[in-house]
UniProtKB/TrEMBL annotation:
Keyword match Kinase: no
Native source organism of the sequence: mine drainage metagenome
The entry's keywords: Ligase
One term of GO molecular function: ligase activity
InterPro entries, per the entry: aa-tRNA-synth_II/BPL/LPL, BPL_LPL_catalytic, Octanoyltrans_LipM/LipL
Name used for this protein in its record: Biotin/lipoate A/B protein ligase
UniProt-listed Gene3D superfamilies: Bira Bifunctional Protein, Domain 2 (3.30.930.10), CO dehydrogenase flavoprotein, C-terminal domain (3.30.390.50)
BPL/LPL catalytic domain segment(s): 18-209
Pfam families membership: LplA-B_cat
Length: 346
């Protein structure tokens, strides 16, 4: 099921211990579904009415990045490592774990390369994205082999401002996303793909992959995550503030929304300001932040920030204190997003 395919790596990671062997899972969902990133707002990103009508479950994963459509034509890999056995910084994680993925694509005749921050490209077309996160004492690196891709359904799943925009999105996806079928003229067999990938994992990560079954505690954890991933509170994050346009409450008090596209992803900010200071703030988007709880902690720490002062330096200080790792997103990016939302007091 859709929840089970996500719960597998969440559950294994949640009970991983420092001395455990690393784990690699390979999954293709039996039925399609939509999955949003850890820091995204489902209401802003997904056309929920369409997904309900099409019978597409919508889930939130504990990994950053954007909303994606998943089906059997994608083979998903999840590297789950004890934190002490994986690179510490997210950018180093990408370089380390993407090496066997690129090798497999290249062995099959596809000239794939890593395009910073975390996309895999072939001749300027995207053939896959990757993501990283921490759950408990485990580091996770996820991605997929794109055998084929349903552009039409992906374009329908996303929330867009107009049908004209959706038409443009559909064309852009066709132009800038590629697949194994498109590059090779046919889809390689799953057996060939998996065998090749496991050889490359062994060579590049210096491990010996072997099939294994879940431990009893892993099975219990996967069952629990399968339940949690289907909870409305997990999907909707009810503490998240939502408003779609600037609203003046009273003199000097405004609710507003802004956004900024950083190298590491789209930042959306929802801002309650009073007399040029932050009263309440919500930050969402398709970026990566480790630890995952750090973005909410940053939003809380910025309460009281003077929106007319030198925001980047103060934001940078908070990011350092909180130990945030946000590849491709820095204090200036967050300040720019805040400026786009800020409505000066009358």
């Amino acid at each position: 099921s859709a929840p089970r395919s996500q719960a597998l790596f969440h559950g294994i990671a949640s009970v991983m211990r420092a001395g455990d062997d690393p784990v690699l899972t390979l999954v293709s969902p039996e039925r399609p579904y939509v999955c949003i990133g850890m820091h995204q707002d489902v209401v802003a990103e997904v056309d929920e009415a369409y997904c309900r009508g099409a019978g597409l479950p919508v889930l939130r994963r504990h990994v950053g990045g954007g909303a994606v459509y998943l089906d059997h034509n994608q083979l998903f890999f999840h590297f789950i490592y004890p934190v002490n056995k994986a690179p510490r910084r997210v950018t180093d994680l990408y370089a380390y774990f993407v090496a066997p993925v690129l090798a497999t694509y290249q062995a099959l005749g596809i000239a794939a390369r890593l395009r910073p921050i975390n996309d895999i490209h072939v001749n300027d077309r995207k053939i896959g994205g990757t993501g990283a996160a921490q759950i408990g004492d485990a580091t996770i690196f996820v991605g997929s082999f794109m055998l084929d891709f349903d552009v039409e359904t992906m374009a329908r799943c996303l929330k867009v401002p107009s049908e004209k925009f959706r038409d443009k999105l559909r064309g852009t996806l066709r132009d800038y996303i590629t697949t194994m079928r498109r590059e090779l003229g046919a889809i390689p067999s799953r057996e060939e793909l998996v065998a090749r990938f496991l050889r490359d994992v062994a060579e590049h990560l210096c491990v010996e992959p072997r099939h294994d079954d879940l431990r009893a505690d892993e099975t219990r954890a996967v069952d629990e995550w399968e339940r949690q991933l289907q909870e409305p509170d997990w999907l909707y994050q009810p503490n998240r503030r939502r408003f779609t346009e600037g609203v003046k409450i009273t003199g000097g008090v405004h609710l507003s929304e802004g956004m900024h596209k950083a190298r590491g992803g789209l930042l959306r900010v929802r801002l309650l300001s009073q007399n040029e200071r932050i009263v309440d703030l919500d930050i969402s988007g398709d970026f990566t932040c480790i630890p995952a709880s750090g973005i909410a902690a940053l939003a809380q720490a910025l309460s009281g920030l003077d929106l007319c002062a030198d925001m980047p330096s103060q934001i940078a200080q908070h990011m350092t204190v909180l130990g945030l790792d946000m590849p491709g997103v820095d204090a200036e990016d967050i300040a720019t997003a805040l400026r786009s939302a800020y409505k000066p007091a009358d």
